Here is the input.
Amino acid sequence: MTPRTPRILVINGPNLNLLGTREPDVYGTATLDDVVRLASDTARDRGCALSAMQSNHEGGIIDAVHAARTTADGIVINAGAYTHTSIAIRDALAGVGLPVVEVHISNVHRREDFRHHSYISGVADAVIVGAGIDGYRLAVDHLAGRLGASATNGAPTPES
Ligand code: DQA
Here is the structure.
């Protein structure tokens, strides 16, 4: 039987819709569309399906995490500033029990003290910080491996 295509949900939190123009010295000039394209291309190359959402609202992110129970097999999340404040998003991620990779574009540990603590990291399987938007590629690639996806870069899969 052919295994089902692993499904990855990429969640971006507040202010990440402003990527491209927001503090380019910190976050670079790539846009959110560029991020989603990079993540989608990586997922496709790894034989995964990818969906992406962005919300500036804590509840919107929590609803997306809950919905992922039936629509995704793993989550990549950059919760933006909610990373440092939201026990509710942490609880949602813990509650659905899906594999989670946390991403931050900037190296939060080299920035203000209030960015050094993440409520998400304690429920994440992996954390990628400071790699720029390449962090999303790394996160999707890692999650694909965790979900048992195989490369489809033209290489034959065991099933083909
Ligand atoms: C961020 C880091 C957070 O501290 C900040 O609030 C963001 C972006 C990052 O990707 O580097 O919004 O998550």
